[in-house]
Amino acid sequence: MESKLVELNKKRHSIYALGENLPLTQDEVYELVTDTIQSSPTAFNSQTVRAVVLFGEKSNRVWDIVEETLRKIVPAENFQSTADKIASFRAGAGTILYFTDMPTVEKLENDFKLYADNFKPWAEQAIGGAQQAVWVALAEQGIGASLQHYNPLIDDAIRAEFDLPAGWQLRAQMPFGSIEAPAEDKPKLAKDEQFRLFN
């Protein structure tokens, strides 16, 4: 069966060889990201996802913070590979920071006590769905990206650097840019190991 959406999902890969030559303007990328997130579902229409889109030196500052933070904890003899990886993210055109708005989650926990234990997991589902949707939307435009998780190590420094609300909890970082080299193929489980059909 043919499906445009399935084909787009197959086009989405973790791209680590990034460049600055985007096929869209910065304004178009920002519109793509914000429209995609706003159209992604959230439980109770809670809209708990927050995002910051950074370009140029502002984006580089994210990876400076990551490098400065990791330099303090990664042994010096092992740090070069870490620095090289961070440099590959810095080489891109920009970075998307994904956050969960915790005051919204906490309000829902208080307002709907029957479901209180579910709102944090539901917020994680919401942000995962938003990240996937943005990643696919970027891939459709020929823009490469990957998803990184240096939180919570960098949370306080990122919040201070960009003057972000205290209630925004950093969940992931997505460097993006032009695709300078294709992604590596990754093995997939056999379908009979991963799925079950009953009919």
From TrEMBL:
Signal peptide: none annotated. PANTHER family: FATTY ACID REPRESSION MUTANT PROTEIN 2-RELATED. GO terms for biological process: cellular response to oxidative stress. It comes from the Bacteria. Residues 10-177 form the Nitroreductase domain. The keyword Acetylation does not apply. GO terms for cellular component: cytoplasm. This is Nitroreductase domain-containing protein. Coiled coil: none annotated. It is found in: Cytoplasm. InterPro entries: Frm2/Hbn1, Nitroreductase, Nitroreductase-like. Keywords: Cytoplasm, Oxidoreductase. The keyword Cytoplasm applies. GO terms for molecular function: oxidoreductase activity.
